[in-house]
C-alpha cells in the first residue's frame, strides 16, 4: 500500500478498576469506537502495560477483546507487565511475538525496555545491537521504533524520573543511520509529539486513566481514554492523530494521590 495505516495504543489494564475506572469497560468502549468510526488501519501496536495485575486471565482477556478487530497485533511489555506470562498466553491466543516487521518503505522495530520490578526502563546491549543491525540491514526503509518508556522528558517531573535510563545509548545507535526514524511510546498516559536529535517522538494515550501534562506531582487529567492512529508515508513522513472517548464517560477518582 502507498500509505499503510498503523495504529499504536497505550495501556490496557484489564480486570477490576484503576483509580475508580473499570479498565476492561474503558478498553471495550475504545475498541467499539475504533470499529464504529471505520478509520482504516493495517495493524495494532500495543505499547505495554496490558495488565495491572499481570495475571494469566488478564492477558487471555486482552486477546479475547482484541480478536474482533481482525488485525495483526504486535506487543511489547511495560513496567506493569509480566513478560513470560505475556509470551505464553498471547502466543497461545495466536498473537504474534514478532519484534521486527519489514515492509516496502518502512520497518517497525519493537524494543523491550522493562526492568523487572522497577518503574523505569532500560534497553539491554543485545537489543541495542539488534536495533543497529536492523537499521544497517535495511538502510532504504524508514524506521518506526516502538517501546514503552519515554526516551526524553515529557515535562511531568514525577513521571520523568521513571524514564528510559539509557536513552543516550539509543540515540547514539539511531545517529549512525541515515533513514528517517520515529519513536512511538506509551507509559506517560498523555499526548506528546516532539523532535529530539532529529528523531520524532510520539506518545500514545491510555485506554483508561490519563495523566495531566506538565505536572510536577501526580495528577490526573480529565481527558477521556484514547488511542492514536499513525499513517506512514513512503517518503518517511508520519501523519498522526489522537482520538478519544467523550469527556465524562470514564472518570477517575479526583482525590487520588497515586497508584
UniProtKB/TrEMBL annotation:
Its EC number is 3.1.4.53. Fe cation 2 binds at residues 49, 79, 148, 187. Its cofactor is Fe(2+). Residues 25-190 form the Calcineurin-like phosphoesterase domain. It catalyses: 3',5'-cyclic AMP + H2O = AMP + H(+). GO terms for molecular function: 3',5'-cyclic-AMP phosphodiesterase activity. The keyword Nucleotide-binding applies. Binds 2 Fe(2+) ions per subunit. Gene3D superfamilies: 3.60.21.10. It comes from the Bacteria. Keywords: cAMP, Hydrolase, Iron, Metal-binding, Nucleotide-binding. Pfam families: Metallophos (PF00149). AMP binds at residues 49, 79-80, 189. InterPro entries: Calcineurin-like_PHP (IPR004843), cAMP_phosphodiest_CpdA (IPR046379), CNP_phosphodiesterase-III (IPR050884), GpdQ/CpdA-like (IPR026575), Metallo-depent_PP-like (IPR029052). The keyword Signal does not apply. PANTHER family: CYCLIC NUCLEOTIDE PHOSPHODIESTERASE CBUA0032-RELATED (PTHR42988:SF2), PHOSPHOHYDROLASE (PTHR42988). Belongs to the cyclic nucleotide phosphodiesterase class-III family. Hydrolyzes cAMP to 5'-AMP. Plays an important regulatory role in modulating the intracellular concentration of cAMP, thereby influencing cAMP-dependent processes. This is 3',5'-cyclic adenosine monophosphate phosphodiesterase CpdA. It comes from Aeromonas enteropelogenes. The gene is cpdA.
Amino acid at each position: 500500500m502507498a500509505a499503510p495505516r498503523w495504529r499504536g495504543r497505550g495501556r490496557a489494564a484489564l480486570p477490576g478498576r484503576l483509580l475508580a475506572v473499570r479498565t476492561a469497560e474503558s478498553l471495550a468502549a475504545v475498541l467499539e469506537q475504533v470499529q464504529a468510526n471505520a478509520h482504516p488501519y493495517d495493524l495494532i501496536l500495543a505499547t505495554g502495560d496490558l495488565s495491572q495485575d499481570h495475571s494469566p486471565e488478564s492477558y487471555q482477556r486482552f486477546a479475547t477483546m482484541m480478536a474482533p478487530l481482525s488485525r495483526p497485533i504486535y506487543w511489547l511489555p511495560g513496567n506493569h507487565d509480566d513478560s513470560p506470562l505475556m509470551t505464553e498466553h498471547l502466543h497461545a491466543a495466536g498473537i504474534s511475538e514478532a519484534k521486527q516487521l519489514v515492509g516496502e518503505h518502512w520497518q517497525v522495530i519493537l524494543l523491550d525496555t522493562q526492568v523487572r520490578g522497577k518503574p523505569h526502563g532500560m534497553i539491554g546491549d543485545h537489543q541495542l545491537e539488534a536495533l543497529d543491525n536492523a537499521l544497517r540491514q535495511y538502510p532504504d526503509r524508514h524506521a518506526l521504533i516502538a517501546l514503552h518508556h519515554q526516551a526524553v522528558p515529557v515535562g511531568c517531573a514525577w513521571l520523568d524520573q521513571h524514564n528510559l535510563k539509557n536513552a543516550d545509548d539509543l540515540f547514539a545507535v539511531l545517529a549512525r543511520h541515515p533513514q528517517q526514524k520515529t519513536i512511538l511510546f506509551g507509559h506517560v498516559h498523555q499526548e506528546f509529539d516532539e523532535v529530539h536529535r532529529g528523531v520524532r517522538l510520539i506518545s500514545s494515550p491510555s485506554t483508561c486513566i490519563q495523566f495531566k501534562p506538565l505536572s510536577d506531582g501526580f495528577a490526573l487529567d480529565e481527558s477521556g481514554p484514547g488511542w492514536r492512529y499513525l499513517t506512514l508515508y513512503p517518503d518517511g513522513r508520519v501523519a498522526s492523530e489522537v482520538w478519544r472517548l467523550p469527556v465524562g464517560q470514564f472518570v477517575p477518582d479526583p482525590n487520588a494521590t497515586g497508584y
